[in-house]
Amino acid sequence: MDQKKIGRFLAQSRRDAALTQAQLAETLGVSDRSVSRWENGVTMPDVSLFVPLCQALHITLDEFFSGERQSQTPQAQVSARHMEGYARYLSRRTRRRTAVLAALLAMVLVLAAVLAVLCTDRTFFTGRCESEMLSGVTIPTPRRCLYRGIGGMDEFTVKLKTLRQPDELDVWIRSYLSTLEAIPTPGGPWGDAVWYDAAQNITILQYRANNDGLGFVNTVYITYRAGHIPGA
User: Fold this and answer.
1) Residue 227 backbone phi and psi in degrees, to 5
2) If DSSP codes are grouped into helix, strand and coil, which group holds residue 158?
3) Which site from 36, 57, 59, 113 is most exposed, i.e. has the minimal number of CB atoms within 10 Å?
4) How far apart are CA 191 and CA 175, in angstroms?
5) Smallest Cα–Cα separation from 59: which of 109, 115, 19, 14?
6) CB atoms < 10 A from the CB of 46, how many?
7) Residue 40: helix, strand or coil by DSSP?
8) 65 and 85 in contact (C-beta within 8 Å)?
9) Would you call 120 exposed, middle or buried from its count of C-beta atoms within 10 A (0-12, 13-18, 19+)?
10) Are 143 and 126 in contact (CB under 8 A)?
11) What is the pLDDT along the chain (232 residues), one digit of tens a residue?
C-alpha cells in the first residue's frame, strides 16, 4: 500500500470534486488538519470513514486503495481484498507500536531498579577502593569520601571485602569482628558497639553489607576513624 500515492490521489479527487479541505473535513466530521495529513501521506483515514470519504470524492473503494482512477467497473472481490490488505497493514503497525512501547517500559523498569539500588546505597566514593583478599584482612588505603550519615567528614568509608556467595556473608563478618576489640557504646550514634583494630590502630564505627550486583555480589563496607576512640 503506497500511502503517499493514496494521499496525492485524495488531494486530486477533492479538487476534482470542487471541495476545499475545510469543506471535506466538515462533511466527514473531522478537522482540516486530518484531511491535510491524509493528503500528505502522513496518516490514513479511520476505517469508519472509508465509505463516506469515497462518496464525498465520487471514487470507489478500489480507486481509493490503488490511489488512481480505474477505467473498468471494479468487482466486489477486489474491494474485499483491499480491505483485507489494509486490515493486515493496521495489524502490523499496531504490533510494531506495541513492541516499541514494551521495549521502552522494560528500559524504564531497569532504570528504576538501578536508581533504587543507588538511592539505598549510602556511600559515595571519590575513587575506587576495594580489596578481594582470600585470607586475612587488610584495611585498604583510605580514600576521603562523602558519607551521608552520622559523623560528617570525620570518618573514612572503604570497601573491605567482596563475597560471591550470600551465605558466606554473616560467617565472614562474625569471623572478622571476633579478631577485634569490642567497645560498648550503648545509645551511641553508631549503635551499641564499635570495634578497635589494634594492628592497624583504627576504630571501626560501623559495618554494613550491600548487594552491589542485583543479587549476585555482596560487598562489606566499613566506616572507621584513626586511633583508639573509647566510646566513639
Assistant:
1) 85, 175
2) strand
3) 113
4) 20
5) 14
6) 11
7) coil
8) yes
9) exposed
10) yes
11) 688 899 999 999 999 999 999 999 999 999 999 999 999 988 888 888 888 899 999 988 888 888 888 765 555 555 556 666 766 777 777 888 888 899 999 999 988 877 765 555 443 333 333 333 333 444 443 333 333 334 444 566 666 777 766 667 777 778 888 888 888 888 777 778 888 888 888 888 877 776 655 556 677 777 788 888 765 4
Contact 186, 194 (CB under 8 A): no
Domain map of the chain by residue range? Answer: 3-95, 123-226
Q: Which residue has the cell 500500500?
A: 1
Closest to 150 in 3D by CA, of 109, 187, 195:
187
Spatial separation of the C-alpha atoms in residues 202 and 225, rounded to whole Å: 6
First to last CA, the chain: 78
Beta strands in the chain (DSSP E): 123-124, 146-147, 156-163, 181-188, 191-197, 202-211, 218-226
Q: Are 14 and 39 in contact (CB under 8 A)?
A: yes
CATH level 3 topology of 3-95 = 434 Repressor (Amino-terminal Domain) (1.10.260)
Contact status, residue 208 vs residue 221, Cβ threshold 8 Å:
yes
- Integer-rounded Cα Rg, in Å, for the chain is 36
Amino acid at 92: R
- CA-wise closest residue to 56 among 102, 110, 17: 17
